[in-house]
Amino acid sequence: MLHKSPHPDLHEPPLVQIRGLAAGYHGNRVIDDVSLDIMRNDFAALLGPSGSGKTTVLRAIVGAADVYAGDVLFRGESVRKSRPRIGYVPQLEAIDWNFPVTVEQVVLMGATRNAPLFPWFRRKDRLKAGKILERLGLDGLANRQIRELSGGQQQRVFLGRALVSEPDILLLDEPTAGVDMKTRDDVLHLLDELNHQGIAILMTTHEINAVAAHLPRVICMNGRILADGTPRDVLTPDVLKATYGAEMPVTEYRGMTLVAETPHRFGAAARNGGSSGNGNAGTGHGHGDNGHVHEEVVAEVPACD
Ligand SMILES: Nc1ncnc2c1ncn2[C@@H]1O[C@H](COP(=O)(O)OP(=O)(O)O)[C@@H](O)[C@H]1O
Ligand SMILES: [Mg+2]
Predict the structure, then answer these.
(1) Which helix (H) or strand (E) is 23 found in, with range?
(2) For the chain, which end, N or C, has fewer CB atoms within 10 Å of the first or last residue's CB respectively?
């Protein structure tokens, strides 16, 4: 386990304060009454089914969703007024892969975020990008086209793009979707390292067990916040039922919380009682949307450190 317990309390104001937030798009409320504090040293996961408003929470923090009530403060100031130092890593699915762009150019886009896109970059920024690529294990790939990379490498390139602006907080939208188990653990370890270097991290994911094993804080939501705390406190059958609308047995194994991820047995598979059905095939959210059987959950117990 990366963290044995949540970080000790900091006696300072939260980095991000979400206060009674209602937000969405074109007048439609997607999230309601959301209040959350993100501390400078947080490493937290936002869990919830597809459509539950996870991405909208992240977008509201960067000021990219319509706000109908409440506010988001960054270091005490509304994100609608200031330009906070926030690194946003979108879902890989949201990216147009036909756009010809190299690894270095993607990273440098993070440095020119506030300026019009231009084809030359400052030497200082290129040096910084080089250091970041090295830190992310991507040295040697600077001139490669981004579309030629593996999913795990692409994820790290977009992490680099967020890091080049030296953010105080990283928001990552499903950084572990569509990658294999080893890459997923590598991504989580990398995020843990960044967290220990002083960057707050809030990520969305469908991977309940990976989060339970690696992260000190879990937030469950479905339009509203349903629970917030340590994996052990939050990942209970009641909270999971309220979040996913399905019975999800929870067990303890060697001090770790393990959730049998059965909510994906919706529809015909659930009615037939089959465990290999896949009612949500093709939604592209990694194995979290596949028919998850108990054996797989047990196989997922990582080598804790
Ligand atoms: N850009 C958008 N314009 C209009 N509606 C959107 C937009 N993005 C998301 N939505 C809607 O908001 C709802 C919640 O979406 P989202 O925050 O993406 O949930 P999640 O990330 O948990 O899957 C969905 O019903 C979706 O259709
Ligand atoms: Mg989303």
Answers:
(1) strand 16-25
(2) C
